[in-house]
Every structure is written in C-alpha cells, then in structure tokens.
Design goal:
The complex is a heterodimer of chains A (114) and B (113). Chain A is an all-beta fold and 114 residues long. Chain A is built from no helices and eleven strands. The chains are: A mainly beta (114), B mainly beta (113).
Chain lengths: 114, 113
C-alpha cells in the first residue's frame, strides 16, 4: 500500500465548475501538506501548502486538511481552461538532521473544457 | 525569479548505453533532490543531498545509477547501463534546509530504445 493515495482520474469538467481533488495518507508522521500543479512536459510547481488541520484559501483555490481522517482536499472554484493540468498532492515526513522527504501522490489529471 | 536549471531537456539513448543528467539548484539551496517520474505516476525520490553529502539514496538502484554533488552546488545523475524501464522524466529540485519550499526544474525526459 502506498503512503499517499490519489485517484488518477482523468477528471473532465466544464468551464466555471467547482473541482474537488482528494488524497488520503496512512502515515501520521506527515506534517506539511502541499498541492503541486504540473503542466505537460514541465516540472511540478507549488500551488498551496498547509500545516495544520483546517482550510486555507488563496484566490480560487482552497486547501483542506483533516488530520484525524488522514484526508486532504483541493477545491478550485470557477475553473478555467488554463487550470487543465495534473495536480499532485504531496506531504513531508521529517527525518534526521532536519531533512524532509517529500512524498507524492499519483496525480490527478484535470481537463477544463471551454 | 530563481530557477532550478536542468539539462538536457530531452535525451534518447539506446539500451545498455550510459547517460548523464545535470542539475544546477537555486543559489543558496543546500538541499538537492533527484526524482524520477514515470508517465502517469507521481515523482519518486531517488536521492537527496545535503550540501555534498548523500542523506537518502534508499530508492536509488545503485547497481546502475550514481549521483554526485562534489562541491555542494550542481549535481550529476548517471545511469549505466540504461534499460528500457528507465524511460521517465528525471526531475531535480532544491530547497533551503528544513523548509517545505521545494522548487523543481523542468526535468529531463529520457527515452531508452
């Protein structure tokens, strides 16, 4: 079983729809929770990060963490065709020497149709 | 905006040949990572450096893969010999020590034929 599970999709929605992306994890040692966006043939770029349980909002994006359920979500409001990309959830497990290990989910491919 | 530089962007090599990838992290970032991303999957950590020292290489296939960061700045990842299953995107990332702010490069797309 993978430490971080994410439905690969693909997910196709019409422009303007609300998108919900989710991940579950099994290791309670995970701390920082992140969402990365990856366009085709590009490296991942950090979209949002959270540390504690609760919601964090940034424009059209809301990240939600529920540590008791080991469940994180990313919501995209008023989705745009430019949001079409692969969304990767990721989590950091801290090790010795203050070094972190970033563990990714499989990624969900999102297509927003005009 | 500071970027992580990687080269080459694309590489096609024949099975059993040697191949090398180069990464130049953001200036001042002591921690450097090499990830492998197979098509349709999330990136998986191959090796992590803290300055010039390897911190984690538990997932690096050491019989064919090697990585170095001799002066604690840029890094090279080598595969010898390459196998068909090595076809993937190889991503380099860097961060300040003890932070969550990983910055990824655009990656090297390797195809082994």
């Amino acid at each position: 079983q993978k430490e971080v599970e994410q439905d690969p999709g693909p997910l196709s929605v019409p422009e303007g729809a609300i998108v919900s992306l989710n991940c579950t994890y099994s290791n309670s040692a995970f701390q920082y929770f992140m969402w990365y966006r990856q366009y085709s043939r590009k490296g991942p770029e950090l979209l949002m990060y959270t540390y504690s349980s609760g919601n964090k909002e940034d424009g059209r994006f809301t990240a939600q963490v529920d540590k008791s359920s080991k469940y994180i979500s990313l919501f995209i409001r008023d989705s745009q065709p430019s949001d079409s990309a692969t969304y990767l959830c990721a989590m950091i497990r801290w090790g010795s020497g203050n070094t972190g290990k970033l563990i990714f989910g499989q990624g969900t491919t999102l297509q927003v149709k005009p | 905006e500071a970027e992580v530089a990687q080269s080459p962007r694309y590489k096609i090599t024949e099975k059993s040949q040697a191949v090398a990838f180069w990464c130049d992290p953001i200036s001042g970032h002591a921690t450097l990572y090499w990830y492998r991303q197979i098509l349709g999957q999330g990136p998986e950590l191959l090796v992590q450096f803290q300055d010039e020292s390897v911190v984690d290489d538990s997932q690096l296939p050491k019989d064919r893969f090697s990585a170095e960061r001799l002066k604690g700045v840029d890094s090279t990842l080598k595969i010898q010999p390459a196998e068909l299953g090595d076809s993937a995107m190889y991503l380099c990332a860097s961060s300040l020590t003890g932070t969550y702010g990983y910055t990824f490069g655009s990656g090297t797309r390797l195809t082994v034929v």
